[in-house]
Structures are given as structure tokens and as C-alpha cells.
Amino acid sequence: MGAYILRRLLLMIPTLFGIMLINFTLTQFVPGGPVEQIIARLEGSGDVFQNISGGGDVETQSQTGGDDRYLGARGLPPEFIEELEKQFGLDKPAHERFFKMMGDYLRFDFGESYFRKISVVDLVIEKMPVSITLGLWSTLLAYLISIPLGIRKAVKDGSAFDTWTSGTIIVAYAIPGFLFAVLLIVLFAGGSYWRIFPLRGLTSDGWEQMSMIGKVADYFWHITLPVIASTISSFATLTLLTKNSFLDEINKQYVLTAKAKGLSEGRVLYGHVFRNAMLIVIAGFPGLFLAVLFGGGLLIETIFSLDGLGRLGYEAAVARDYPVVFGTLWVFGLLGLLIGILSDLMYVFVDPRIDFEKRAG
């Protein structure tokens, strides 16, 4: 197993390199870089994309004499523009900037945000708890609901219970998380009906002065709706996965043999079937957590006014804050690859009969 893990760790290097190279290359063709952002703010134009789209009128273009500099820069001293480019490192060729960035990232030096005057590491650490909260609690809630429900559906396969729960699951899977979040706000956060839960944030004002029990209660009061909205689609998928896994095991010969020996249904189900059937479900926990953490995080965080990694990445992309964009991309990519290895280790832990080294050989 050690050789397999070592190979996977070594493969992370070219994988991360490829991810960063593709995204870095794409940004070279995206208009409205950090220099244009600052110039647009200084000029008071508000929308930098209007300045770079070439959408100015003919009279304005003729006055510039066909000047191909940044449109927002016209009228500003060229020395000022050059200083901005030097400050952001944009005065160097693209390939030189890329390899310097990769060298820094290998040392986990992600630099400083262009516009927030804070290091990227500190910024990610500051926003991480919100995203971890959503991802972890949503994954745990999905498992707590899906495993018992999936087992029950497998035992009652073809019954009325199985039919109507399947219909409910299909509807839940079909509803986008962000749309369900809006529905929850309308119903339970003072949108049009009841005001039971708060609309924004993870804690109330004066949270620091609350007792320990009060802090815990306030925390769960705030995360209830965001967690439910994040759980809706993963819960549906996991329930069907659990049911199908149990159905596959229930129909195997060893189950029939155990029943023939007179063992009770509960003893057969939880003493023999459970471990084999739960292999794929339990081992998939890291992957599901990663999917919930990054998938749909932006919309959920925006709807509930949560300041997490999803909003951070979106705002950085809009502002062309490249250190934050690429720094978070590196962290997310590295985290995703590590969780992939962790998923494999979970398979081996749940079922020691699995040997990835022999499969790789």
C-alpha cells in the first residue's frame, strides 16, 4: 500500500501543474485585468468591461488616434501605468510569470491579494470555517438520513413505502440547491410566511457575550437553513446508492444461507449484510464532503450572506485578483487530490481485502 500511496503523491505534481497551466493560460485571454480594474476605479468609469470591449463611440476613438493602450489609461501618465504593471508583475512575459508563480506555490508562498492588502493564506484561513461548516454538516446530515432510509427502502423494495419515498427522492434530486434555498428563505426566514430562522451570517450580534450553550444554540440556529439547502441533492443520491448496495448484497448466496440457518432478519441485515453493503457508502464520505464543500457553495453562501470560500473565489475572479484566484485554485486542487487518496485508504480500511497495489500492477 505504501508504494501505491507514493505513486499517487508523485502524480499530484504533474496533475497540479496541468491544472494551473490551463487556468493560467485562459486568464491571458480574459479581458479586464487588475491594471484595468484600478484604472477604471481611478477614472470613475465603474464598469471596466465597458472600457475594454471596444464599445466606445466613433468620435472617442478618432480622438485617441487609434491608440491601442488600455482605453481606461488614456489621459493617465504612461509612467503610472508602467508602475502598476511592474507592481503586479505584469511587465514580465507570461511564461516567466507562470514559472515564478509555480516556484512560489511549491513553497506555499501564495503572495498577497492585490486589493485587500492581506496574504492569500490568511484570507483562505479566514474564510475556510464557513465552507467547512457547510460541507461537514451537510455531509453528516446526508449520511444520517440516507443510510437508514436506504436500508429501509432495500428491505421494503417494491412496497408502497419504497414507491412514495422514491418519488420524493427524485423530486429532491431535481430541485437545484440554490432554488431550494430561496424556498426555505421564503417559508422560514421572513420571506413571506414565518420568521423562524435568521437570514444571514453564522452568528448573531453579541455572540461573544453568550454562554457556551447559547453560542452552540445560536450557531446551529444560523446554519440550519444553509445546511438543509446544501444537503438536498447529495441526500437523494446517497439514499439510492445505499438502497442499491443493500439490494445487491441481500440477493447474494451467503445471505440466503444465513437465513436458512434460522438467523433473524435483523441479525442477517446488520450482522452480515451491513459491512459489505456499506463499503462503497462509507468509503465515499471524503468525496461527498469535497463535492458538497465546493459544489454549489458559491450560490448557497451568496443567498445566505455567508462569507466563505465560494464568495471569495467569485469576488476574486470578478476583480481579477490573480493571487487569490490561483492561490485558492492551488489549495482546492491539492485538497481534492489528497481527498482522492483518502477515499482509497477508506476503502482499504473498511475492507482490507482490497489491494490497490495489485490492481495497479
Automatic annotation (TrEMBL):
Q: Where in the cell is it found?
A: Cell membrane
Q: Does the keyword Cell membrane apply?
A: yes
Superkingdom assignment: Bacteria
Q: Could you tell me the keywords of this UniProt record? A: Cell membrane, Membrane, Transmembrane, Transmembrane helix, Transport
Q: Where are the transmembrane segments?
A: 9-26, 130-149, 170-194, 219-242, 277-304, 324-350
Q: Which residues form the signal peptide?
A: none
Keyword Cell membrane attached: yes
Q: How does it sit in the membrane?
A: Multi-pass membrane protein
Residue span, ABC transmembrane type-1 domain: 128-347
Q: Principal place where this protein is found? A: membrane
In the record, the note on similarity to other proteins reads: Belongs to the binding-protein-dependent transport system permease family.
Q: NCBIfam families recorded for this chain?
A: PRK15133.1 (NF011712)
What is the name of this protein? Microcin C ABC transporter permease YejB
Which species is listed as the source?
Answer: Albidovulum litorale
